[in-house]
Write a structure and sequence with these properties.
By secondary structure, the protein is mostly helical. The chain is built from 11 helices and 5 strands; from the N terminus they run ββαβαααααααββααα. It is found in: Cell membrane.
Length: 455
């Protein structure tokens, strides 16, 4: 791509301008080159300069484009190559309105969803458990993404430039990295908490507010360390030029910082989350298939008949893969007892057929539970990977292999796909809990708690 005309400062080039370079015999002093504007631009400053000439021996006709998204001629593949000026004015307006509406809906949905989670935990006594402190802190992090990060990102996306200067760019990128990193690390902390709940029998009883509070503090401390590093000087040398001239606000593109930030923010947490949820699934599958008898409470029932088969639903505060936030879960167990509590056996003539029926029923129930556990864990990990993987792969490519990275619309889509994860987290981490569903129903419908229940 050709360079900017020598007497047209890059800073004054605006979105929507495309110039053609044609021979101008009336201007021999300039080498016979004249710059003609093909599509009028909103910048009156540029309109007054488009007749300017440059020196040099050039051909009769050549095309000069520039970065229509970020207001500069550049060969940097990190920068966008969009050209909204090629679209009719009416279509450009429609695109701007549609983009604004979509981004606005994402922001509103993220705020509402996370506010619901936070309010539900504070209002519902049965949700104010130690296990839900992590979900509460996750909701705060995602709410901060919606309030501190998304609005300025939406403004920059719609206007196709960063016009707020280097200082505010520093603040915004710091908040962006802080909130998004905290959100991702909370997912890792929740995965670790669930694994210990499933793998360590005494963990739920021994877990206290101090331990969970330390995990939350550690998450925010790591996120803060990653986010403030560029503020204290870990920046690439082109940061000021990129913001002031190119009007692009990006986090530090220093290679060392990008490797440090992407690994600590995404790649290491991703590997640990996948390993932890795989182990959770293995433990849950083993327990579903081979539940020890001691784990099921011994329930006796008096009955006039000599043989009684009781289907028991055991309620408890067990954390299982299909209960994501420590709500009440159920276990089913078939117990056969006689009147004095001794285990029963059916008559020999009936035992074979009945055992086969019971075995088939149990096998079907176990398969159903395994599928549900696998589905739940697949949703949790799948949404996280789908939302953040494209962005972090692209960010690393931008730093290590500039010719390999995706710019333009792809970069914007990847960025907002990551932000959407903060909108989906309140759904994923609460929808599997009956307690959260009931709390949301009360908040939406204004239902009062049952009569006689003290709040």
């Amino acid at each position: 791509m050709n360079q900017t005309p020598a007497n047209l400062p890059e800073a004054v080039w605006k979105v929507g301008t495309i110039l053609f370079r044609i021979a101008d015999p009336t201007s021999p002093a300039s080498g016979g080159v004249n710059w003609t504007e093909i599509e009028a631009n909103q910048s009156s400053h540029l309109r007054n300069m488009f007749e300017s000439t440059v020196t040099g021996d050039v051909g009769n006709l050549s095309f000069v484009g520039y970065n229509a998204s970020y207001n500069t001629v550049s060969e940097d593949p990190q920068l966008d190559t969009r050209s909204p000026a090629l679209l009719p004015r009416e279509l450009r307006l429609v695109v701007v309105v549609l983009v604004s509406c979509v981004l606005g809906l994402i922001i509103v949905a993220t705020v509402v969803g996370n506010v619901f989670v936070i309010v539900a935990i504070f209002m519902e006594r049965n949700l104010r458990s130690v296990g839900n402190y992590l979900v509460l802190s996750l909701g705060v992090a995602d709410l901060m993404v919606a309030c501190l990060v998304m609005p300025l990102a939406a403004v920059a996306e719609v206007s196709q430039e960063w016009a707020l200067g280097p200082a505010l760019c520093d603040v915004w990128t710091c908040c962006d990295v802080l909130c998004c990193t905290a959100s991702i690390l909370h997912l890792l902390a929740i995965a670790m908490d669930r694994y210990r709940t499933v793998a360590q029998v005494d963990y739920v009883r021994q877990r206290n507010a101090r331990q969970v509070g330390f995990m939350i503090l550690l998450v925010w401390a790591v996120a803060l360390a990653v986010s403030v590093a560029p503020v204290f000087g870990w920046k690439d040398p082109d940061f000021q030029h990129r913001v002031q001239v190119n009007r692009i606000c990006l986090v530090s593109q220093d290679v060392g910082y990008q490797i440090f930030a992407t690994c600590s923010t995404f790649y290491v947490p991703l590997i640990l989350i996948l390993l932890l949820y795989w182990r959770i699934y293995q433990v849950a599958r083993r327990r579903i298939r081979h539940k020890p008898g001691s784990k099921v409470p011994q329930i006796m029932a008096k009955s006039p008949s000599s043989n009684v088969e009781i289907s028991v639903i055991v309620a408890g505060n067990n954390h299982s893969p299909n209960s994501c936030s420590g709500g009440t879960t159920t276990q089913e167990s078939d117990i056969s007892r006689n009147n004095d509590g001794a285990p029963l056996r059916p008559p020999p003539a009936q035992q074979g057929g009945k055992d086969r029926r019971q075995f088939t029923t149990r096998e079907s129930l176990e398969s159903k539970r395994e599928r549900k556990a696998a589905k739940t864990l697949a949703i949790i990990t799948g949404v996280f990977v789908i939302c953040w993987m494209p962005f972090f792969v692209n960010v690393l490519l931008m730093t290590l292999c500039t010719s390999c990275s995706s710019g333009g619309y792809a970069f914007s889509v990847f960025l907002w796909l990551g932000y959407v994860n903060s909108m989906l987290n309140p759904i994923i981490y609460t929808i599997f809990s009956p307690d959260f569903r009931n709390a949301f129903r009360k908040l939406l419908c204004g239902r009062q708690p049952p009569f006689g229940v003290k709040r």
